[in-house]
Amino acid sequence: MIKNITIGDLTIDCTNACRARDFYAALTGWEKTIAFGCLALKAYNGMILLFAEPDDIPYVPPVWPEECGMQQKQMHFNFQVDDLSAAVEEALRLGASKSTAQFGVDHYVTMLDLEGHPFCLCRK
Question: What are the Glyoxalase-like domain coordinates in residue numbering (predicted)?
Fold first, then answer.
């Protein structure tokens, strides 16, 4: 075990860093910034989300739900919300789409951001 380890930042690969950052800034209210030469968001707890456009190869969005032989998601966010239906409506208004595959019943809704990354809005 590594003592005193924390997550300092997370990097999100995307085709359009500005569009991706603006979406998550509008969704979360987190502060827009630049970190390590990347467009970024600073969460209320200090964690940084970096938005990176690949240099040499085109970004390929993940397929959700996963399909054999297709680009898999590597991670996704679970955002805790007080009002699940209001949060879904706001995410849709901001340009997200609701995944056709839903597994959370009444507990969470799987959404896709503007770059195709799945994320979940979860009832607290």
Answer: 10-122
Strand partners, 11: 50
Domains in the chain (CATH in brackets) are: 1-55 (3.30.720.120), 65-124 (3.10.180.10)
Give every CB contact of residue 6 below 8 A, 6+ residues apart in sequence: none
Separation CA 68–CA 83 (nearest Å):
34
Hunting for tokens 């032989």 — which residue is that? 69
Q: DSSP code of 31?
A: E
